[in-house]
């Protein structure tokens, strides 16, 4: 199999490295020096995008979300008949609409690996698939993912974006807001090196969020049409809790805790609490 990876950023590099296991790989990027550097590091080829796509059986498009529709339309015109054209954008609405406009005889599948370039394998990793025009190439690719340990979930583009508004947009927004609050309060200094288990775990998550790309966080919030809804829901929840605490009314907290126990199960809540302390005690040992 011949694979072209269009976009030599962090995720493009990850895809190229993964694809080396089963294919002959070519990387491309609008920054040709970056493409050559990544190609040299991975010992694969580097070529301009159209040439790489014209010679590939499987074409990954790993460029910024806003650029993905245009790149897909352009590469479909040069892709070989029967090739599989795949994007890895984190927001699917406009991307899938652009795929549906493609008339060329190529397979079209939109995927979202629910992990970043820090992953060392696909084992137990979720990959969402929107099969726009799948065929034999997609079935071959899917088997490669499954043999590598990935968990495949197929859904529509709209359901994907609704789910990612919660899974990504809300989670990122919470952690960025937490970091911003620490910054405004000089909270790291105020903590004086003291920790509780929850503070320690939340601080570690916030540190991990700080390793992400600000541009990607912004794109996710901007491009996902459901992100504003979840942000507004969070702001409303914070306001209602603030009002409740100011009144000394703890019924809202009881309701939240009861909902969590019912939603996740009391056993899972208990296990999470125990694991929190196991991690905390490992950190301090």
Structural notes for this entry:
It comes from Hadarchaeum yellowstonense. Keywords: Oxidoreductase. This protein has 285 residues and is of the alpha/beta class. The chain has two domains: 2-155, 3-Layer(aba) Sandwich (Rossmann fold); 159-249, 6-phosphogluconate dehydrogenase C-terminal fold (Orthogonal Bundle). The protein is 59% helix and 14% strand. The chain contains 13 helices and eight strands. It has helices spanning 10-19, 32-42, 49-54, 68-76, 93-100, 136-147, 157-185, 187-191, 197-210, 214-223, 227-247, 251-264, 266-284; strands at 2-6, 24-28, 45-46, 58-61, 84-87, 107-113, 126-133, 151-154. It has an eight-stranded mixed β-sheet with strand order 3-2-1-4-5-6-7-8, with helices on both faces. Strand 2, helix 2 and strand 3 form a beta-alpha-beta unit. Helix 4 runs parallel beside helix 5 (93-100) and helix 7 crosses helix 11. The chain is elongated. The protein starts with a strand and ends with a helix.
């Amino acid at each position: 199999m011949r694979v072209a990876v269009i976009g030599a950023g962090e995720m493009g590099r990850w895809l190229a490295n993964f694809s080396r296991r089963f294919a002959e790989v070519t990387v491309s990027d609008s920054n040709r020096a970056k493409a050559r550097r990544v190609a040299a590091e991975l010992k694969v080829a580097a070529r301009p995008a159209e040439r790489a796509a014209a010679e590939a059986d499987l074409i990954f498009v790993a460029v910024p979300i806003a650029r993905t529709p245009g790149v897909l339309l352009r590469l479909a015109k040069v892709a070989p008949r029967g090739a599989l054209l795949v994007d890895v954008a984190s927001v699917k609405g406009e991307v899938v609409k652009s795929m549906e406009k493609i008339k060329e005889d190529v397979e079209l599948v939109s995927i979202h690996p629910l992990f970043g370039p820090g992953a060392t394998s696909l084992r137990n990793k979720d990959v969402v698939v929107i099969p726009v025009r799948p065929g034999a190439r997609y079935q071959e690719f899917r088997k490669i993912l499954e043999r590598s340990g990935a968990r495949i979930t197929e859904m529509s583009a709209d359901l994907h974006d609704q789910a990612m508004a919660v899974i990504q947009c809300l989670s990122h927004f919470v952690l960025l807001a937490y970091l911003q609050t620490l910054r405004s309060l000089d909270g790291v200094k105020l903590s004086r090196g003291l920790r509780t288990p929850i503070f320690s775990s939340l601080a570690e998550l916030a540190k991990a969020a700080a390793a992400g790309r600000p541009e990607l966080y912004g794109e996710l919030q901007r491009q996902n049409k459901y992100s504003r809804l979840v942000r507004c829901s969070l702001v409303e929840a914070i306001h209602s809790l603030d009002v409740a605490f100011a009144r000394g009314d703890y019924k809202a907290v009881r309701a939240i805790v009861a909902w969590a126990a019912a939603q996740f199960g009391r056993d899972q809540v208990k296990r999470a609490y125990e694991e929190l302390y196991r991690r905390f005690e490992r950190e301090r040992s």
